[in-house]
Write a structure and sequence with these properties.
This protein is α+β, with helices and mostly antiparallel strands. The protein has two domains: 65 residues, no CATH class; 162 residues, no CATH class. 32% of the residues lie in helices and 30% in strands. Strands 1-12-2-3-10-11 form a six-stranded antiparallel β-sheet, with no helix packed on it. The chain has a six-stranded antiparallel β-sheet with strand order 7-6-5-4-8-9. Strand 2 and strand 3 form a beta hairpin. The longest helix has 25 residues. The two termini are 24 Å apart. 20% of the residues are buried.
């Protein structure tokens, strides 16, 4: 009984005195308020993950805000591609959907140097910063960033390097394969990626919560150590003298 009473007395004394959680909260909040409004602008579809709060600016000048639902292939992409590209320079330079190609890519540089890969695939389509593929071997990713791509080689001997492909996709009107879903409180909108000029995300401002959790952890350690110490020490000692 004395040990239980000791713990209760310790809690009553210690909790008001251990304000690390409040200090952490204050420091984190100050960090958030002083942090620059660094906006992340996404240029590649493979940088996005579901649930991310985004702000989109469309090519029509509209601003759309909400949480990312995901990406899906637009209906009749191959027909849209043919109609837009047929009879243009793009049709002679950029591999069309379902074209069989040899993909030449590379891994990021390491201490051992840069390793190059070659594999067979069909082109599915393009999106900002990436090419969608149907690799013959499943060990290769169906989504390849232009930054990891060296070139695409067609069976007819034509080739296009990554730099040219980037220029064609960014400024020459190569149709994109995906539409992006963004959900607000009322509905989910699906917007073709070639109708989006800017995809951005604002900072999360998580410093206050991080500071609070760190401070609370310190507080908990102080209380636990104190309880263990008091638990092994009687609250009252000696005898009452009458």
């Amino acid at each position: 009984m004395q040990r239980i009473l000791s713990a209760l007395v310790l809690l009553a004394i210690t909790l008001p005195l251990t304000g690390c959680s409040l200090i952490g909260l204050a420091i984190g909040s100050a960090s958030d308020s002083n942090a620059p409004e660094q906006i992340t602008r996404f240029k590649r579809m493979d940088q996005l993950s579901g649930g991310t709060p985004l702000t989109l600016i469309t090519t029509h000048g509209d601003t759309v805000k909400g949480d990312l639902v995901g990406l899906r292939e637009i209906h009749d992409y191959e027909k849209i591609y043919r109609d837009r590209v047929s009879g243009t320079l793009l049709g002679d330079v950029v591999p069309a959907p379902q074209a069989q190609v040899t993909v030449v890519s590379h891994e990021k540089a390491t201490l051992l140097g840069t390793r190059q890969h070659r594999f067979q695939a069909k082109v599915r389509g393009f999106d900002p910063g990436v090419v969608h593929l149907l690799p013959v071997q499943s060990r290769y990713s169906p989504l390849l960033s232009f930054s990891d791509l060296d070139s695409l080689l067609s069976d007819g001997g034509h080739s296009i390097d990554a730099a040219t492909l980037v220029r064609m996709c960014e400024g020459q009107g190569v149709p994109f394969i995906s539409e992006l879903g963004i959900r607000d409180t009322l509905e989910t909108r699906w917007i073709p990626t070639d109708e989006i000029s800017v995809i951005s995300a604002e900072p999360s401002h998580s410093g206050a919560m991080t500071g609070f959790l760190i401070g609370a952890s310190v507080d908990a350690c102080v209380v636990i150590v104190g309880i263990v110490s008091w638990y092994n020490t009687p609250l009252f000692s000696g005898k009452w003298k009458l």
